[in-house]
Amino acid sequence: MNNATLNFALPTGAILAALLLFGLFVSFAGVNPVEVWVLLFKGAFGDWYSWQNTLQRAAPLMLTALCVAIPARAGLTVIGGEGALVLGGLACAALAHAVPLPANAVGTVAVCVAGAVAGGLWIALAGWLRQYRGINETISSLLLAYVAIGLFKHIVEGPLRDPASLNKPSTPALDEGLLIGTIGGSDVHWGLVIGVVVCVVAGLWLRLTPSGFAVRVVGGNPRAAQLVGLPATRLVVLACALGGAAAGLAGAIEVAAVHTSANAALIAGYGYAGILVSFIARHNPLAVVPVAIIFGGFGAAGSLLQRRLGLPDASVLLLQGIAFVLILASEALRDTDWKALLARLTRIQPVEPVPQGEKT
Question: Which pLDDT tens digit goes with each residue over 64-76?
Fold first, then answer.
């Protein structure tokens, strides 16, 4: 079985197995698994309202998945996208509060760039710690995410808190002219288009440019990268910075398109869900787009499961967790000789003849 087939078959099989296991778990609560599967589909893709909800959730997932996918192509496992996202949203709100910006597209671009820069610098720190201090990037990026969330809460509830936000601390709302609008009168904002464009650009950069090829060489064979004189350290930090910038941009878009200010609602787990999206997409930025839409649909269906069947809204997190475990487990099957295994399973053992002199 070739790599392209495996790259599609293993994640697909893992998702189907996760749905089966999820159905088994909900059956213990007295719920019909078939009804759960039907509602998952209806809540995600059943009608135009469901599609809009799905696409809204898919937009940040595309960008947070890139925070994992791009460093992964350089050989790193970065899982701190949640921290980059919240700092990106905070930077977006802080810039609009601190600097008078034109209430037009220029101002919108400025707050989005601020978010991307904040996220990029934060994740680049994890790459720098890996290259210059030998600190594992998985641990450092995760711990930095907790630091970022703590910093976010401190600033939102303290120096930048809007006095008018009583029960729900938040920063002052962005000016109307800085907000990102919706597409064609729908509820889907232009952040979805930005996410798709960034994924396409990232995919083309990795595949078609010398710097993107160099990042892939560093990730695929660090020894060969050293022998040919590639600046591995700079490329690793660059990959981390670009991934963090994507997650920071996701935070800025969430503020400018959904929440209109930075508040606790921004900490919605998109950074952690992006890890799952990236792994299912095999860290391919182009494959991130459809996978993000699928998992955006799972998130959108959670409220429908709660209304119709009484299941907790967060039950879809169980489905995502099962899928993540099975995706990681499926990698063990990648080197399996499927032809030999199939031949072994279908081989019919010959029946030994009974000697003529023996009684039956």
Answer: 999 999 999 999 9
